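WARN  no MSA supplied for this record, continuing single-sequence
INFO  ligand: adenosine-5'-triphosphate
INFO  echoing inputs
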Amino acid sequence: MTDPLVRLENVSVRFDGRPAVQHVNLSVHRGDIFTIIGPNGAGKTTLIKALVGLQAVTEGTVERAPGLVIGYVPQQLQIEPTLPLHVGRFMALSGQPEAECRRALERTGIGHLMASEIHHLSGGERQRLLLARALVRRPDLLVLDEPAQGVDINGQAALYNLIRELRDELNCGVIMISHDLHLVMAATDKVICLNQHVCCSGFPADISHDPAFIDTFGHSVAESLAVYHHHHNHSHDLHGDVVSRKAAEPAAHGAHCNHDHH
Ligand SMILES: Nc1ncnc2c1ncn2[C@@H]1O[C@H](COP(=O)(O)OP(=O)(O)OP(=O)(O)O)[C@@H](O)[C@H]1O
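INFO  complex generated
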């Protein structure tokens, strides 16, 4: 296997002595799509900030491939509400040529909004704008913190499909956080269940049966996901229409920790 784009070894982050992330080992390679799930406050954002270098680690190491270009989509677009800013100008702040900016906007389905005021965009359009900004530098690694928040359910499925297509086009790695377990189970390659430490990780079809997963999310969630996963064999396009999905059902490949979970 080729060298990872990023490798975390025994990474822990503490705030004022309080652990947010504990002893995480993780490698992301080109072509991977990992989704981190876990309850509120589980350390998901802290972990991906450590991965991209925005958060210092208290313990362990984070190794990034030399010259690695990361496209980071933060949880929210932070823009001063009184500052007028249109989409084209926002993209130009990336320092990339206008043609590249336009192409990235078109690729995320909002090319027609080039002249729109950012404050007037819908939740879904904002998420696509953030994705376009992350794409414009043609990243080796896309890191997305809840990319589908504020997006309706059909839009979420379309966004996940788009992320998968971008992975193929750019041959990049993808690591993201999601709270929508149904969508994660239907559309992700590999899931990492985090509750400070990695409780369990593996392919969606397997992870919902993992005792560590059931410990974290409860039986009813696990059962509903198992059923959902069984029946959901399609995806939706940008308009919400059903499209076929590659029926690649990964082979069993789960890994989980062997200690009690609180
Ligand atoms: N800069 C910081 N200073 C102090 N505590 C912090 C800081 N950033 C995060 N924390 C704490 O670390 C813990 C993990 O936070 P984090 O945002 O990583 O969780 P999360 O899993 O992304 O949560 P959510 O699902 O609610 O977004 C929380 O208890 C949070 O209060």
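DSSP finds nine helices and twelve strands in the chain.
INFO  checksum written, moving to next record
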